[in-house]
Every structure is written in C-alpha cells, then in structure tokens.
Amino acid sequence: MSDSDSDSEAGASHISDEEIFRRKILMDGEGTGASQGIDNLLCSFIQWCDSEGQTDEEISEGYQNLLAQLDNLEFSCQKSDAARRANMRQLQEYDQMCADLESKIVDMEKTVAEKRLELEKAKKERLNKMKYDALGKIVSSLPSRQESMEKLAKIEEEIKILMAENEALQEKSDVREKQVRLLVTSARELKHKLREELEDWEGSDSD
Predict the structure, then answer these.
(1) Could you read off the pLDDT of 46-81 as tens digits, one per residue?
(2) Keyword Nucleus: yes or no (predicted)?
(3) Rounded to an integer, what is the distance from CA 158 to the centroid of its chain?
(4) Which pLDDT band holds residue 207 (cuts at 50, 70, 90)?
(5) Distant-in-sequence, close-in-space partners of 33: CB < 8 Å, separation ≥ 6
(6) Which residues, other chains included, contact 127 with Cβ-Cβ below 8 Å and sequence gap of 6+?
(7) How does pLDDT run across 125-152, given as a tens digit for each residue?
(8) Of 74, 87, 88, which is closest to residue 26 (Cα–Cα)?
(9) What is the pTM of this model?
(10) What is the DSSP string of the chain?
C-alpha cells in the first residue's frame, strides 16, 4: 500500500476512535435531534472503512465526504445550540417580563386600593360640606345676635309697660272696690235708718 493509503487509513483510524464519536456524543448531549444525520454518517463511515477493492482516490474522496458530513453536523449542532441559547434568553426575558408584570399588577392593586380610600374620604368630605352649607343657610336666615338682643330689649320694655299699666289698673280697681263697698255699706245703713224712721213714724200715728 502507498504512503497516501497509509495516511488515509491513519486518518480514518483517528477519526473513528476520537473525532466521530466525540462529535456524536456532543451532538446527542446538546439535544440537537440530528439522529438521522448521525445514522447516515455512521453508515457512510462503515462503508468507508470497508474500503477493500477501492482505489486511493475513492478512499480519499470518501474521507473528504465524511469530513464534509461531520462539518455539516457540527454546523447543525452549533446552529441548534445557538437556537437553544436564544430560546433560553427569550425564556429568561419572558420570565422577567412576567415578574415585571406581576409587580406592576401588585402596584396597580395597591394604587386602586389607595384611590378607593381617597374616593370614600372625598365622598365623606363632600357630604359634610353639604351639611355645613345647609346649616349655614339656616343660620344665615336667622336674625343676627344684635337684632335678637334689640328685639328682646323691646319685648322687655313692652312687658314693663304692660306691668305698669296692670299695676295702675289694679290700683284703680282696688279704689273702686273700696268705693263700692263704702257705697254698699252706706246704702245698708241708710236703708236701716229709713226703716227705723218708718217704724217710728207708724208708731206715732197709732197713738
């Protein structure tokens, strides 16, 4: 066998013992799902190893095809790994977005609760203001303290005048009552005197 045959066989032995299985394990470990490509590579490798009756050129061409398939599988692994990493980053971004959204929801719920309390407080304040305004209207419709005091003083003055008039009338009534009593007494005395005189006169006539 020529030097080129020896090099090809040495390369094949080196690939089969190390590179091919290492890359297969790497690809399977990364979860690329390229099992069909690996199966095809293994079939090609077995066929290439069974190089009996093949020329050096065919062996070299088969070796280059194996390397090309390995390169394609490695590229597929790298592509899948890049996609996996991108998916992981996207999942992390989604997790962060979900965490941010949950935080915002908590903040919104807190804000809504605070606004609800503020609304209840505003309603109470408005109701109290309405009550105060109504009470103010009632108070404003009432006379002022000065007017009330003036009216009270006027009423007290009128009461004093009425009391004075009542006392005067009472005095007049007492005087008239005394006069009437005196007249009645005088009338009774006069009546009694007249009766006595009449009796005396009748008695003198009978003599």
Answers:
(1) 777 776 767 778 777 878 887 888 888 788 778 878
(2) yes
(3) 65
(4) low
(5) 80
(6) none
(7) 998 888 888 888 887 777 777 888 888 8
(8) 74
(9) 0.35
(10) --HHHHHHHHHHHHIIIIIHHHHHHHHHHHT---HHHHHHHHHHHHHHH--TT--HHHHHHHHHHHHHHHHHHHHHHHHHHHHHHHHHHHHHHHHHHHHHHHHHHHHHHHHHHHHHHHHHHHHHHHHHHHHHHHHHHHHHHSPPHHHHHHHHHHHHHHHHHHHHHHHHHHHHHHHHHHHHHHHHHHHHHHHHHHHHHHHHHHHHHH-
Alpha-carbon distance of 38 to 44, in angstroms, equals 10
The token pair that represents 91 in the structure block: 């999942």
Question: Whole-angstrom Cα distance, residue 71 to residue 15?
Answer: 13
Q: What is the mean pLDDT of residues 19-29?
A: 49
**Would you state the structure tokens that stand for residue 85, as one six-digit string?**
């990493």
Q: Residue 143: left (phi > 0), alpha (psi -120 to 50), or beta?
A: beta
pLDDT bucket at 14, cuts 50 / 70 / 90? very low
10 Å CB burial of residue 27 (0-12, 13-18, 19+) is buried
CB 69 within 8 A of CB 40: yes
